[in-house]
Amino acid sequence: MKVLVVGSSSGCGLEVAKLLAASEEFEVFALVRNLERATKALDSTSDKVKFVLGDVTKPETLAPACEGMDGVVCTIGARAGWKLPGSVMEDTPKFVDYLGVKHLAEAAASAKVPKFVLVSSMGVTRPYSPISLILNAVKGRVLVWKLKGEAAVKEAYSQHEELGYFIIRPGGLLNKEGGQYKVIAEQGDKGLGTIARKDVALIAQACLQGLCPQSNVTFEIINGKSKPPTDLKEVLAHLKPDK
């Protein structure tokens, strides 16, 4: 299965790329702006990844990258927040979390990529919750733009019945070992909690593998306190498709 990982140089994207590359089931491609940085981040895994130069803020680079893929996993997030007028804006939430995701989803849908997995964020529909207020204030309304990015994925993929999207909204992200605690999947964006980035990667992989019985689905994930089940299909079995 050919999978394009976008955002593989850090965070959840790095964990996704490493996880998929460790399996013979996947042929991993990584969309990167800086080859040296990506190679360094992936370390020994870089030998198992094929790099494709591209940038989500440059739509013309995305169509060739998506061609022939069986899945796309998008984990991108803006590095900057607010900027003064006249500054370079391409690394702000509007251009990354919204327009960048939009460009990528449209390119993937046009290329008939069967599965599109977006890692978004818990709390995007609750702008007045304390955590959301802080994040939006400090990081340039990032959750507002992430929600618009989600809508863009739905719009692009809803036009093709044979294609499917999976929007994952993790809670607070932690750099901890995955597989230590149960993953709780819910819908409605009502919960709070944290989750290991490696567990987010496991759920993204599960979506690619068809372990989520529904496509065109949006859900939140956090870690519980109990030990994890051996089958992630159990975690995702109750999810319902978006209306």
Q: Which terms summarize this structure?
A:
two-stranded parallel ribbon, 8-stranded mixed sheet, alpha/beta, about 240 residues, Rossmann fold, single chain
Description of the molecule:
With 243 residues, the chain is of the alpha/beta class. The chain has one domain: 3-Layer(aba) Sandwich (Rossmann fold), CATH 3.40.50. It contains eight helices and ten strands. The strands form two sheets. Strands 3-2-1-4-5-6-10-8 form an eight-stranded mixed sheet, sandwiched between helices. A two-stranded parallel sheet has the order 7-9. Helix 1 crosses helix 7 and helix 4 packs parallel to helix 6. It is globular. The model has no long low-confidence stretch (mean pLDDT 94). Pfam families: NAD_binding_10. InterPro entries: NAD(P)-bd_dom, NAD(P)-bd_dom_sf. This is NAD(P)-binding domain-containing protein.
Topology, please?
Blueprint: E1 2-6, H1 11-21, E2 27-32, H2 35-42, E3 49-53, H3 62-66, E4 71-74, H4 93-110, E5 115-119, H5 130-138, H6 142-158, E6 164-170, E7 172-174, E8 183-186, E9 194-196, H7 197-208, E10 217-223, H8 232-236
Parallel strand pairs: 1-2, 1-4, 2-3, 4-5, 5-6, 6-10, 7-9
Antiparallel strand pairs: 8-10
